Description:
By secondary structure, chain A is α/β, with parallel strands linked by helices.
Amino acid sequence: MTSRRTALKWTAGLAAASLLPGAALRAAEPLKVGFVYVGPVGEAGWTFAHDLGRRALEAAFPGQVKTTFIESVPEGADAERVIRNLAQDGHRVIFTTSFGYMDATLKVARQYPKVVFQHATGFKTAANMGTYDVRTYEGAYLAGVLAGKTSKSGNLGVVGSHPIPEVIRNINAFTIGARSVNPKASTRVIWVNSWFDPGKERQAALTLIAQGADVLMQNTDSPAVLQAAQEKGVFAFGWDSDMTSFGPKAQLAASEIDWSVWYKKVVGEVLAGKFEPKQQVWYGLKEGAIDLGHLAASLPEDAKKLLAERRKGVLDGSRPVFQGPLRDQAGKEVVAAGQALADKDKLAMNYYVEGVQGTVPGGK
Amino acid sequence: MEGNLFTAVLFATVVAGTPLILTALGLLVNERAGVLNLGAEGMMAVGAVAAFATAHHSGSPWLGVLAGLVAGAAMALVFGFLAITLQANQVASGLALAICGVGLAAFVGKPYESLALPAVPPIRLPFIADIPLLGEALYNQQALVYASWALFWAVLYFLYRSRAGLVLRAVGESPAAAHAIGHPVVLIRYLAVAFGGAMAGVGGAFLSVFYTPMWVEGMVAGRGWIALALVVFATWRPLRVMLGAYLFGGVMVSQLFVQGAGLQIDFPSQFLSSLPYLATIVVLVAISRNPATIRLNSPLSLGKPYRPDA
Lengths: 364, 310
């Protein structure tokens, strides 16, 4: 493991090293794999989940892989510099873990054709650059099933970050899950327009609770929503990773991402010399990249049983999350009975399904 | 239901405004002495992490607040040394303090990231908390909320009714004149800077110990900058700072309630999120628009280093 500080040291050292002829030094070294994180690693949430993946990767290839991570890299001109530094520094595989790194990654990828670039959640590719993402909506759907089962009022709340398709998809999946148990359930959404502002997230959660919501989900990055739920005696979920310590009574379960599945596959194939970088993968429950874990001990047996059933339905494809008949808010049918939504339509989702209240900000 | 809603919005407004009031009033005193410290964000972050760590180890939120106060003041004294003693550029030193404070807090706070503190119960004031609508919102609050009101009265009294306050303002207007009649300009500026840092530290402590009882990197989330802007837009007047802080909190909270109501109206939430900033600026600029009073209230020597001649 290498921290940011050592990475900086390398960068400084590189200037000196590049003056020396030849780079034979590196021949016997392990494969260097770089990670660029958008936030601090912390102990929970998006970046933490990526870092767990990185640690699992290092553990899976002892001695063969050496990883570096650089945290809190802003999505902008800085990102390009950081990515280029990693490439220059001999990293042969580079994972850039936030949507906003897309153009920076692409630009550097063109300059370093021998380096493999993998960009999370984006849609642009190149000969040596692919994208990967996790079907977080499957976790949201399973959380919705538990929410529908647990909620007494049928009044659910979601604290959303930014109104982009990824988040809207999760809200819809959550609502579909809940309504599959309680057809009268409905979801209200508050957008905080920020990925990370615990104070505002807490305030949004308290607002939803004051307006009658008794189970909450959040698509933001701090445990503030869960903590507010704990204080007010309602329920919520861990998002991206387990958050039990912030709401031991409130956490019904946690939607947990396991990025290591993809990280291990990429690196394993690169080591074997047979990796094809230009892919767009979207891993889900089936690949083990997402699951609803850390189920609360307080959950009744029938809720666990129902959850296991729905989980199986998603796994074997007998009951996909976005299956027809599915109507949007206005009552217009978006998926016909007997069919399921195609991936490309999921990626562009910009409408609320039936059961979500309010309107998509700026959407149509 | 309507009444409950009003009480809930008012309650949340007061809570959201409190860290801003604590920090902004400290900065106001600081700037009235003629020193511009842009490091509020950093001082709040350091105050927040110091308060959280102390409260976690000691089990006492009050020791936590004290630690936040001391840590904020200590950060401010570092700035004071640069800006007052070494006469460095105040804007640059302040910005450096902001960046350094945020980074330092993240570094020190690493081991505390997965921990949570027990919520501190609010203090219900007898009798007045029973006033319908207002009582629950205003008088069943955290102790630091009451402290922010006490701070307001104290700053008001200090600045406009006490001799010491007059001297402080004189130092901010014309340090040369204050020095000539025998006031210790450097000492007064140090005290003012330390006070500003201490209050920013308490503002940070409110966030990490009372508001969201946890520590996560970046949790101050720009509130230090908002407090700085409030002081300027309020033209260095305590009452307007208070008004601005509650207005900001109030609009922020109300827009969340509007969103949560799930109305079928097409109104972009991005616009709603920017509303607190817009509303606060527009209102404060409108009430402070008279150029003569702006001149009257802004400390003349703000941001200018002063070296007392021997």
